[in-house]
Write a structure and sequence with these properties.
This protein has 106 residues and is an all-alpha fold. Helices cover 66% and strands 0% of the residues.
Length: 106
């Protein structure tokens, strides 16, 4: 089932709002690592592939820790962080494809 902004199920809206808020937080946290101004896209974080993978792996490790410790609140926070990093990585890939004309489906 395809989702559009208008067809998001109500219970998913808070999840996506949380991910967008986390993207903002990460943008501020990693501001020194960005390659350009964010005027084009409010949520763009430009990392090298290695740096992005390091950040994503660290966040996944924190998910694992929350599961092992039975920390439900912490688990949700960490999952939102994983989602935000993944979205930033997808956006970076899409931007690189556009700029370098790498092709592929966005």
């Amino acid at each position: 089932m395809a989702y559009t902004a208008l067809k998001l199920r109500y219970e998913h809206r808070q999840i996506f709002l949380d991910v967008l808020a986390e993207l903002d937080r990460q943008r501020e946290l990693h501001a020194g690592e960005t390659a350009r101004d964010h005027a084009e896209s409010a949520y763009s974080i430009e990392w090298s592939a290695d740096r992005a993978l390091t950040i994503l792996t660290e966040e996944v490790g924190e998910v694992a820790r929350a599961i092992i410790e039975g920390d439900g609140d912490g688990l949700r926070i960490e999952l939102v962080q994983v989602a935000a990093v993944a979205v930033a990585m997808i956006e970076g890939l899409d931007t690189a494809r556009e700029e370098l004309d790498l092709g592929g489906d966005a």
